[in-house]
Every structure is written in structure tokens, then in C-alpha cells.
Amino acid sequence: MRLHLGLVHYPVYDKNGQRIASAVTPVDIHDLARIARTYGAGTFQIITPLRDQQELVDRIRTHWTAGFGASYNPHRREAVERVAIADSLEDGIRKIHAREGESPFVVATDARGQQENMLSFSDVHGLLREKRVVFLLFGTAWGLDRDVLQQADAVLEPIRGIDGYNHLPVRAAAAIILDRLVGVHP
Amino acid sequence: MRLHLGLVHYPVYDKNGQRIASAVTPVDIHDLARIARTYGAGTFQIITPLRDQQELVDRIRTHWTAGFGASYNPHRREAVERVAIADSLEDGIRKIHAREGESPFVVATDARGQQENMLSFSDVHGLLREKRVVFLLFGTAWGLDRDVLQQADAVLEPIRGIDGYNHLPVRAAAAIILDRLVGVHP
Asked: What is the pTM of this model?
């Protein structure tokens, strides 16, 4: 499998629909890193142009891969090793190209569910089975800016619960999406 | 559906296999409440005998259901409304009995995967479809004490990723398990 995850901190929406750069949330990094490890994603990129936020990610990464945390909790080390930093979506795509030898097919996730250019879970599962390089993007704050959705090659259909409620934290949404795309369902 | 969730803080194991009461983690409460709301669980019980921890849960609940948070973020209110407090597993079972008019079938979750008394995702999905009252238990810290696994009517089979790694945070495990048991898969 040639899957990579990206957690976008810019550009995303705030509560009022304004474009912002969101702050890095350490629990998101830990959770998505462990989800990436569980389901075999090669890298998990934190996408933010803000230097201080990149430094925070770097401190977390170093703590768990080389510092005290690496010996305290080796399972977490295995997960956090996958964490990488990108300045922008373009930078992230370049890094995946450098690693995989080809450009990734970029799939954005979006709880709102647009109509155009949408792929089903089964479609993306198929791409992964065909060994396509896939870059799966998650938004922070109130979701990915429209520009990111338009830059992506496709948007994944949203998770539906039992009714219209679609306000899962990104940590939970990422877990469910990876399980649906990659998990071995008994 | 007559599903209830419980997040057990006592008795659970610490890193060294000792029985402890773990501290309440606010992000777990928020995430599991939203997961419960998404997948239609009736209540989400925080199980702890510690008064100060119960008070912390109560403060979080009040903030998001009656305080500033209720108007700031109504989606979160809808989720956090499901949060309840129980002193123990027995107390939690009593509360579900009082609400549903019958005792729940208690299903513990455990990443380790024991052999005895294990049910598949499909088995538990079947119980829910038959309108059985099901109480699904998640552990904090290093997992549910053996006593809880023995008190439960059954243990759910563990989540398998692509290899043996099974160190998901409880927030992610709960999201995946609810999606597998209840989610509408396209």
C-alpha cells in the first residue's frame, strides 16, 4: 500500500467561514500517528506554514522518537516516526513524489459532502489495491478551505452515522475512514 | 437501537499491570460523546468511583449543556447531553436497567483479544438489530481489568489493522468499533 495522510492547518475555515491557519493540537498528532501506523500509511504530514507550529511538531516528534518517550513507550515511537512536516499542500505532494517516485492522487475528506468529483470508500479502496500513491487529506478547525477541495483530484464521500449528525472530531473521522479504506473486516 | 457506552476508569491496568483508577481525560469525554451521538447510543457513562473525577465530568457536562458552551457550540451540546456518571459497572448496569426496563447484555472491548466468550462484530451487530439492550465497555489507561472482562457477558473481538500493531487510543478504537457495529456502510 502506498497511502500517505495529511492534516491540513492552512487553509481551513474557522467557525465563521473565514480562512485561517489553525493551531497544532498535540492529541491530533498522537492519534493520527497511531492510526497511520495501525493501517500502514507510509507518512503522516502535518501541513502548516507557521514556523512556531512546525517547531512544536518537531519537539513532539523528537520527544517520542529520540527523547525520554522513545524508551518509555516504544509503541508510540513506532507511530510518531511517521510524522513529517510540510509547509503547504504543494510541499507535501513534492515530498511524497520524492519518496514514491510518482505524484500522489490527492483525496480530500469533507464532512459536508459536495456533489462534484466525489469518490466512494470503495473507489478509493480500489485505488489503494491497484498500488496507486494516494494522499488523503484531513482538515482541522471547521474543515478544509474550498481551494483545497478544488486542488484535490477527488473528494471522499462523507461518513454517515444513523442520521444527519456529522460533527465527529477529526481524530475519530480519520480512524473510521482508514478502517473503511484499509481495515481487514471480518 | 438500545446501545449504551461506558468508559471505565476503575478497575483498569497501569503500564505495569497494576490495578488503578485512571484520571478522567476531557478529550475522551468530548470524542466519545460525539461518537455516541453520531451512531445513536442512548447514553455514554463515565465510570469512576472518585468524587473529584465525577465532579470534573459534571463541570464539563454543565458547561456544554447549560453554560456558555451550549450556545457557542450546539452540536457539542447534543453530544455531551448523553454523558452520564456511574460509580461502578454495577451502578452503570442499574442505571441502564432503570431506563430500558431490562438488564443490558454487557460487552467488553479489549485490544489483547482473549479466546473465551468472544463475539465477532457481526454477532454484536445482530444483537443490536434484535433490539437487545447492549452496554459496550471501553477501558482507559492500559485496558480493562480482568475482573471486568469476567463480569461482562462477552468480549468483542479486537480490531486488527494490517499487521499485529494494536495500540490505538480509546477514542479511535471507539470510533471504529461503533462504525463497524452501527455505521451504514455504502
From this structure: 0.95
